[in-house]
Amino acid sequence: MFETNNYVPCLTVDFSKAFDTVNHNLLLHKLNDLDLPDFVYNWLVSFLIGRSQTCIVDGVCSPVVDITRVLFKDLA
Hints:
Elements: H1 24-33, H2 38-45, E1 51-53, E2 56-57, E3 60-61, E4 65-67
Antiparallel strand pairs: 1-4, 2-3
């Protein structure tokens, strides 16, 4: 498209921090209620896997804590 157009429309979304602030179990239950296709559900779950968080207050950093409250939907 770059060769034939002056511009190429593109939409990018960074979900990386959005899921650190919600209850993962509650979110997954609500997503499951939407009856999404498994690949969409699991794509969203992938944003929750292997994540960690920490907090900095007055320049003091807390220990890094893994976020491990996620289960994949059964693909069978």
